[in-house]
Automatic annotation (TrEMBL), chains A, B:
Name of this protein: NADH:ubiquinone reductase (non-electrogenic)
Segments forming a coiled coil: none
Family recorded in the similarity comment: Belongs to the NADH dehydrogenase family.
Catalytic activity, as annotated: a quinone + NADH + H(+) = a quinol + NAD(+)
Organismal lineage: Bacteria, Pseudomonadati, Bacteroidota, Cytophagia, Cytophagales
The keyword Flavoprotein belongs to this UniProt entry's keyword annotation: yes
Ranges for domain FAD/NAD(P)-binding: 14-332
EC number: 1.6.5.9
Length: 444, 444
């Protein structure tokens, strides 16, 4: 019978953290010396460095170099326990979390479940669009892109050819801009060498943005430069446009404009995914959980939330903080300190977000960076972007591998990971309560 | 409709090669300057460096660093065409190959389909045992091993615990020996740090070998040293034993001895997989296709076979050549020359195998090497093993990544890739004639 049997009450207060994203692992880290039992529950056994998922999806990096096993991250932290499970609900009366492997009592609970892709309630789009939110998403997209070109070789029907060669990316935020730029680079430097029998003039890359400018979260200079770079790379950018429908073949925009594609990449926003059991009074728009300045969920003494899932609504931040890594990491760090303060009955420190700015890369030598100290675009911005991402990647080995891959791609104009890797059944896979089964069609 | 429409008759003889293993890619390479149309058909879009699959399975290397896209391998070879497909049969009358994407006419056909895992006709074992023959096998095994320990944390039942922590490896050839050694290293250096709540004294690793000695293909010194090294690493080696049955839980040997395990790793041998349409008179034991000294399939003028699938039965090689990379590569290289000779009506050169010896690594600083010039075991042998494998890996980038991973693991006593990577459906996956669908249960 599955349970948490090996996590024994040792008299110390138990902090249960749901989710090992940027906020969750910062919190675990900052509890390293705490006299607590720290239990991290995640549905993956690894942290994912989400900002570089798009490079896995576009054959620039191998998946393993941007994910890092939790047990490895914290192997030197004696108070750390990890369990691979999905939390299904929480019981705030009994103070337990219900999971796919049984239930666990908590003294303090931290929701760090992050956000999921937002399809704005459109089930048809949800069914057919391709998200890039998890490592599995990224690998599936890579397989999809490469399979499309293998398929394109097999048809002479012009419309089918376009449906396989053309890409529509929805969302003009950093992810959408970065995916569009990376596809444009593949179109220019890589695919023509791989698929000599195809004419890549025919490969159209469309980027659909709902706002009048790209990178709405950033400065006008950044947004305008990003647009200029993408157009220079041959990407068709459509501003002030929304996708009305997509059936897996035809995309229709709000103005009736249509595109034919088997690849609608959805980067149009995220929404929080609160867990059953949280009082609905605490759930605000965007599916986020309202927290006070100490990241405590409103209406609870012992439940906290941080990162994308947490909406810290104040006079300065009426919308809460941006759903990005930096606020999550800063909140995780502070909450670690505050939990220890709380337990020893000392006063807590309110959270103040230190905005370090925002950046996006469009491709080779092209990035846009808004920092407190400077706004810059182009080659220097691109160097800053690479530096900041490199030092942020979890795990020294991963950092080294990413650096080498980037240098290799830069000098060779190549993307090495053009691999369609199929999937295989584990004959004796331990059958797991409520474990979903996914299927994948491969060529092999 | 799927077909080979973009491979146009250009008046040049068309060589169709089925399979891009060691033999197949050597053949393509040696046809680089040939005035031919060279078509490679494979069910993967990448070459797999099989000798290191076991390191992917045991978290030592990322999958992407030992596989290399065919289109990348031959991007500078104008006469090269690749198609991602599975060959279902051959029509030697019409001179066509029937595939999952349609049929293609050939002037010369080369079978380089390699070998598959040999279960010696035991369907029950085939159903439950875990093979290591493809990159998907290796990733599935890695997921399986890590999932087992996550599961082990959830039980207090001693028998279930053993079934999850114990491993039985069948086959005392290089692969079996290397897997056993790698698991022993994980047990010693890695898993105890990852799973502090488990007692790794309980992790048993059994290696079952049918012959009276390990590494039957190699010298007595090599076999005896391998045994000594494995026992030093705490592996239980059972010589002169066969597996009678395995139901996914209980392994029974020919002497009635039983082991409880959810992980029976099958490395007990391979068997050729000939394609429908080859006259059965040409198919010899082990499912191999009989060829003459020019790798021409007996009874045909225009069909050739090389590597594992080819049995070149001569007075010196009554069993054909060993089913390993070196004979395949040497045959591929020579066949490339001979095909050009044949077309220009010149005499062919008979194949003579240059045996470069054989080697296996047991783990850190421990390998056994039999070369023509010397037989050695231990640290020096281990260096030779690494050097030979490094220079053999296809792709400079892959070589560099493998080298870095090896150095990293060596100095850190760590294996970085302890990642359970789930699988995801491609919503708009181009549906492919006869494409098999595999399913995978994940925790996430």
């Amino acid at each position: 019978m599955h349970n948490f049997t090996r996590i024994i009450d040792n008299g110390k207060p138990r902090v249960v953290i749901i989710g090992g994203g940027f906020g969750g692992i910062e919190l675990v880290k900052s509890l390293k010396k705490a006299d607590l039992q720290v239990v991290l529950i995640d549905k993956h056994n690894h942290h994912t460095f989400q900002p570089l998922l798009y490079q896995v999806a576009t054959a620039g990096l191998e998946a393993d170099s941007i994910i890092h096993p939790f047990r490895k991250c914290f192997e030197d932290q004696p108070n750390f326990y990890f369990r691979l499970a999905e939390v299904t609900s929480i019981n705030t009366e009994k103070k337990t979390v219900e999971t796919t492997i049984g239930h666990l009592r908590y003294d303090y609970l931290v929701l760090a479940t992050g956000a999921t892709t937002n399809y704005y309630g459109n089930e048809q789009i949800k069914k057919h669009a391709i998200p890039i939110k998890s490592i599995d998403d990224a690998i599936a997209l890579r397989n999809h892109i490469l399979s499309n070109f293998e398929q394109a070789l097999l048809t002479e029907d012009e419309e089918e050819l376009n449906s396989l060669m053309d890409y529509v990316i929805v969302g003009g935020g950093p992810t959408g801009v970065e995916v569009a730029g990376a596809l444009a680079e593949l179109k220019k430097h890589v695919f023509p060498k791989d698929y000599k029998e195809l004419d890549f003039i025919k490969m159209d890359i469309h980027l659909i943005q709902g706002a009048p400018r790209l990178l709405s979260g950033m400065s006008d200079e950044a947004g305008d430069k990003a647009l200029a770079y993408l157009e220079e790379f041959g990407v068709d950018v459509w501003l002030d446009r929304f996708v009305k429908s997509y059936d897996g073949y035809t995309v229709e925009l709000d103005n009736g404009q249509k595109f034919i594609t088997k690849s609608l990449i959805w980067a149009a926003g995220v929404v929080g995914s609160p867990i059953d059991g949280i009082r609905k009074e605490s759930i605000v728009r965007g599916g986020r959980v309202q927290v006070d300045e100490y990241n405590r969920v409103t209406g609870y003494e012992d439940i906290f939330a941080l990162g994308d899932i947490a909406a810290m609504i104040t006079a300065q931040t009426p919308q809460g903080h941006p759903m990005m890594a930096p606020p999550a990491m800063q909140q995780g760090k502070l909450l670690g300190k505050n939990l220890q303060q709380l337990i020893s009955g000392k006063p807590l420190t309110p959270f103040v977000y230190k905005d370090q700015g925002c950046m996006a890369t469009i491709g080779r030598n092209r990035a846009v960076v808004d920092l407190k100290v400077l706004k810059t675009q182009g080659f220097f911005a691109w160097l800053i972007w690479m530096f900041v991402h490199l030092i942020s990647i979890v795990g020294y080995r991963n950092r080294l591998l990413v650096l080498i891959n980037w240098m290799w791609s830069y000098f060779s104009y190549d993307k090495g990971m053009r691999l369609i890797v199929g999937h295989k059944k584990d004959p004796n896979a331990p059958i797991h309560k409520q474990a979903p089964t996914t299927t994948q069609t491969t060529f092999s």
